[in-house]
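Lecture 7, part 2: worked example. A protein chain together with 4'-deoxy-4'-aminopyridoxal-5'-phosphate.
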Amino acid sequence: MNIENLLSRRTLAMSGSGIRRAFELGAKLKDPINLSIGQPDFPVARSVKDAAIHAINADRNGYSLSRGIPELTARIAEKLGNDFGWSFAGGASDIIVTPGTSGALVLAAMATLNAGDEIIIPDPYFVLYPAMASLTDAKAIYCDTYPDCKLTAARVEKCITPRTKMVVLNSPGNPGGVVNTADECRELLELCRRTNILLLSDEIYDEFTYGESRTQQAARPDKDPVMKCPSPARFPGAEENVLLVRGFGKTYGNTGWRLGYAAGPKKLIEQMIKLQQFSFVCAPTPLQWGAIAALDVDSTLQIQEYQKRRDMVMAAIGPVTGLKAPGGAFYAFPKIPEKLGMTGLEFLEAAIARNVILVNGGTFSQRDSHFRLSYAVPEHKLEAGLEVLSGLLSGR
Ligand code: PMP
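Predicted complex, written out as structure tokens:
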């Protein structure tokens, strides 16, 4: 049998993730300094592990409702009520718990995009965004956000056509770690409102927002006074236009648990729940019990630690690359100095030759002029990696 004849155009059109490729290249190295990994290096909190283990031992191992266990959706509703003033009781909004943030992105694409529809994504982008278009035979419109990696209303407006259905905002962003200001979020929301376009706000890194990029906009500061990442969801009436997507994996260090959620217009969430019934069925049930405990975890110390590492990155390679300090996530996306005359791939190869693994910019972009480093690695590894990189970047 010729299996290749049976493969869909959809799958053949996608190239494998460049992140995995960097991983495979690095697999040949002995004890490499791996700055390519996009997940936290701290362990899951004891209380969260215990809650999941307890659920397993208490025989909560069957299917859950496709929308998620009511105890978890209630906690998420409470959180979003405090943060944004969103109301879910009989309101126009709803929540779905999904297998990872990726699950929410795929369901959102399946629920909205027809063949030929357009979805505007930032360039550089998280690798799943172009796939949201490939999976649905829609078209990804790359909104150039260089040099600052900010998706702004002015940039998005130029990409809108009558076929545009969705704009994807990712702040704090992967790969740039860039955080939009509250005003920039509001302008994007207003543009999407005016043009009847869904604004998907992927806030998987929301907790990893560093002091200077946080803002005070909580709807109920009496309940939750902590300054937060600016979000378009924080403006009145946003739930009619915004599909908020968030995850547990990065925030609580359990990416392998595959847990995320989406909240937004009820009519859209209803369709996503229906699609989930016919695909993933539900997010892993015992781990949803763990997620409830996760929502009580205070990650302040971890965030401070990551901010310190961000500052180490800036001190080591900020001056030589002209990089602006990223306001969030745990990535930096510097431009390779032109005087080196290297593409991202060439720079990646040079780094690998010195035992350091990165991801080249072309993995996240239509151009290959930058590289992504993740500083979610122990401090001594980061220090060693930065020494190699600053040498490479200075042409030494
Ligand atoms: N969105 C962004 C911006 C990401 O960086 C990632 C993971 N790297 C995801 C979504 C998917 O995360 P999850 O593991 O929750 O599916």
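The pocket of 4'-deoxy-4'-aminopyridoxal-5'-phosphate is lined by residues 38, 100-102, 126, 170, 174, 202, 204, 247, 249, 255, 260 (CB under 6 Å). The domain at 3-43+299-393 is CATH 3.90.1150.10 (Aspartate Aminotransferase, domain 1). Keep this in mind for problem set question 3.
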